[in-house]
Specification:
Shape: globular
Membrane topology: Multi-pass membrane protein
Number of strands: 3
Organism: Loxodonta africana (African elephant)
InterPro entries: GPCR_Rhodpsn (IPR000276), GPCR_Rhodpsn_7TM (IPR017452), Olfact_rcpt (IPR000725), Olfactory_Receptors (IPR050427)
GO molecular function, one term: G protein-coupled receptor activity
CATH architecture: Up-down Bundle
Structural class: mainly alpha
Number of helices: 11
Strand content: under 5%
CATH class: Mainly Alpha
Largest sheet: 3 strands, mixed
Radius of gyration: 21 Å
CATH superfamily: Rhodopsin 7-helix transmembrane proteins
Strand order of the largest sheet: 2-1-3
Order of helices and strands: EHHHEHHHEHHHHH
Subcellular location: Membrane
CATH topology: Rhopdopsin 7-helix transmembrane proteins
């Protein structure tokens, strides 16, 4: 390669639209940080941390922060400058962190679906199947398995030769836009990316879909109150899954080409879906709302006594 940096074309050339996007995405990023940090602190300061679902939720919030922070701060800064450049090293790092943290998030969403499936379908065996040791092993497997997924992606990207053309028609570095500017035939690499990222997204989505179908089928035998509570929790999970996996499958499970709509769909799984996760998991979860109210009201009361 004979280039040291790439030029990101971004979302739009319109200065007014860029200012609007700057304010919007800055708000989204701050909301994501505040919401996920509130969830993390609330879980850590309450007895819910020992519950498997909240244990997974705390890891999901951490991954949302890491995943979003690999893209959004750079996007926000680029909206204020004319030339949106990124060094070759930072571009490769962005490719790796996006796929690494994103794939861990996928694995944790699967673990949360399994947790709900066991809790609703086999409540008497729940503590046997889901305990802290197995939760730790699941999270460890998520990190190890997704490293196996992410390092081949990075290896394929680093091996691409780049010569002359360095303009990426996107707002962050991803594999398909990089394949477009690579100075070689990238068909085989594109097929491998689809087989890796695309199939992972599709298989995981099918597993999640089947697990929630089983849950809904089992709920027929529950009381009205039991169905309401279970649907409240599962409804929030299904919303997160659809917001994240729908655009992801469109982006990666197709022929290795780029479309103008890619940027819009990418906004869903990089910014919009992670921003809504804290709201979905708190406003749709009565237990989490009660715990957060208790933790923060208690903290406010103790601060008032101290003053």
């Amino acid at each position: 390669r004979n280039i040291s940096e790439f030029i990101l074309l971004g979302l739009s050339y319109d200065p007014n639209l860029q200012l609007f996007c700057f304010a919007l995405f800055l708000f989204c990023y701050v909301a994501l940080l505040v919401g996920n940090l509130l969830i993390l602190v609330s879980i850590q300061c309450s007895s819910l941390f020992h519950q498997p679902m909240c244990y997974f939720l705390s890891h999901l919030s951490s991954m949302d922060i890491c995943y979003n922070s690999s893209v959004t701060p750079k996007l926000i800064g680029d909206l204020l400058v004319e030339t949106k450049s990124i060094s070759y090293g930072n571009c490769m790092l962005q490719v790796f962190t996006m796929h690494f943290f994103g794939s861990i998030k996928v694995f944790i969403l699967t673990a949360m679906a399994f947790d709900r499936c066991v809790a609703i379908c086999k409540p008497l065996h729940y503590l046997i199947f889901i305990n802290r040791t197995r939760c730790n092993l699941i999270v460890l497997a998520a990190w190890a398995g997704r490293a196996v997924h992410s390092f081949p992606q990075l290896s394929m990207t680093i091996r691409l030769p780049f010569c002359g053309a360095n303009e990426i028609d996107h707002y962050f570095c991803d594999i398909f836009p990089l394949l477009k500017v690579a100075y070689t035939d990238t068909y085989i690499t594109g097929v491998l990316v689809v087989a890796n990222s695309g199939m992972v997204a599709l298989v995981t989505f099918v597993v999640l879909f089947v697990s929630y179908v089983i849950i809904l089928f089992t709920l027929r035998n529950h009381s009205a109150e039991g169905r309401r509570k279970a649907l409240s929790t599962c409804g929030s999970h299904i919303t997160v899954v659809v917001l994240f996996f729908g655009p992801s499958i469109f982006a990666y499970l197709r022929t290795p080409t780029t479309f103008p709509e890619d940027k819009v769909f990418a906004l869903f799984y990089t910014i919009i879906a992670p921003m809504f996760n804290p709201l979905i998991y708190t406003l749709r979860n009565t237990e989490m709302k009660n715990v957060m109210r208790k933790v923060w009201c208690q903290a406010y009361f103790q601060r008032g006594l101290t003053v």
